[in-house]
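Thread title: Can someone regenerate the structure for this chain?

I was given the following input by a collaborator and told the matching structure tokens would be attached. They weren't. Posting the sequence so someone can regenerate them.
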Amino acid sequence: MKAAVLYGPMDLRLESINKPALGRLDVLIEIKANGLCGSDIHFFKEGRLGPFEVTSPYVPGHEASGVIEAVGEEVEGFKIGDRVVIEPGIPCRLCEWCKSGRYNLCPQVRFLSAPPINGTLSEYVSVPFDFVYKFPDRLTYEEAALVEPLAVGLHAINRGGLRPGMSIAIFGAGPIGLMILQCARASGAGEIFIIDKIPMRLEMAERLGATKAINAAEKDAVEEVLELTHSRGVDVLFEASGNSKVENDCLRLAKRGGVIVLVGWPDQKLVPYKLEDILDKELDIRGINRYANAYQPALGLLEAGQINLRAMITHRYPFNQVCEAFGYVSEHPDQVIKAVVVN
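Best answer:
Regenerated them for you:
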């Protein structure tokens, strides 16, 4: 079968590799669409992201949908022809974190596309049946592939403890920031402020329901939000940009007793915090690690028509142009919201 194989920075090749084996508890999925994640682009450009590094050829991609071609002998609830999305983090199911429901924290988790584990940018993928989900007929394969980043947004909202009427601010209007925005709106958030420097992203944020989209390249975004909130700040703040320079802006913008959720991987390992702000305001700072138990709720929001994934897809590429897709997205980040590769 054909697959996109990443050998190192800026070295992606479309090659033939072995078709995956089908285990007794697996389903073999013919991949129909893949969303290109920011992490895929990081690995493509730099060969690493956080603790993960490309040290040998592997297949990227983890935002995927497809149709079941074969089922293992002990698979239940699925049949050939089912349209499904893949949850790419496969845990051990036995450790204390798995048993408590926080399986995203499993030390033995195998996350598709986290080097050296192959991902989904190929013609076929074999995965355990309990980590695939049928999706509504009203969704296209392209939209269904974006359930994965939607799950990140929903998990971030849950970690923030968002309740109806609460105000929020989001640093970063990339795909994850926009997913957080939509999940917040669907959860009944009050005022929703979003901050970025790329006009295209800010326009999309307004289209998707932001109360105010602020261009940080043109004004002091923190001061503007403070003015709009009468110096109180916001209840919950989401850092989704990965820019370590805004970490202390989060402290300024969070209201007393507020919550800060760190979503984006920081571009620096060590970030100095003004601890007196954290103590004086009694702030809660929470991280998120992908998601857990978020796919079914995310699909429920889509079934109810509360999330617009179609609007976020700005670029489409056939699978035989996957290398061109990576090249364009990496070179023109200010011109792309979400690119999808279609098999």
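The longest helix spans residues 147-159.
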